[in-house]
Amino acid sequence: MGSIKRDERIRLKDGRLMTLDAAELGDGKFEVMLYDPKSGLEMDVVLTPTEAEALDEFERLRKEWHHPEAMPAELKGQYRKLAEDLKAALAYGLERKGDDDGGTCNFDAPSLHLPGWQRKKVEAAAEYAGLGCFVWNLWGSKSYVFSLPMGCGVGQGMTRTKAAEAMREYLEGLGYDAMTYCQAD
Description:
CATH class of the largest domain: Alpha Beta
CATH topology of the largest domain: Alpha-Beta Plaits
Shape: globular
Helix content: 25-40%
Distance between the termini: 33 Å
Radius of gyration: 19 Å
Strand content: 25-35%
Order of helices and strands: EEEEHHEHEEHE
CATH architecture of the largest domain: 2-Layer Sandwich
Number of strands: 8
């Protein structure tokens, strides 16, 4: 019993993020559900008698509902540009991460100093780009750190560091006040 396949990054046409989960129920049946993890609203639910059918339904629902390029409605102007720039920076960083994942396990990530920017909109831009986001208070000034999530294509050592440094370099080249946040585990 429990989840057999899960995707927490299903983006609807309106930009909202949903979770798609296939799970085995207690009575030997399977359920595939698309839902809003914040509100609990169920968008689509399918019951199947076998795991194979549940996995087929999972893929069908993903194709039907997932629109990865949909931009959240609240992202306009500089926030829309930030979202697009972060997405491009992630792709740039992944291309330059290398294969050697040795070294210290870390949480290295690019960071941007964005004075006067609205935190919720910066976080929404990061979410659209597939990144985490938190505020780093550095010497009385706040910067946003855009963390690379597990499963995005980097490991936990040198590949993460190289990707973070390449992303910082890319964002700096676009004119952002960027630096690399470094934290060893």
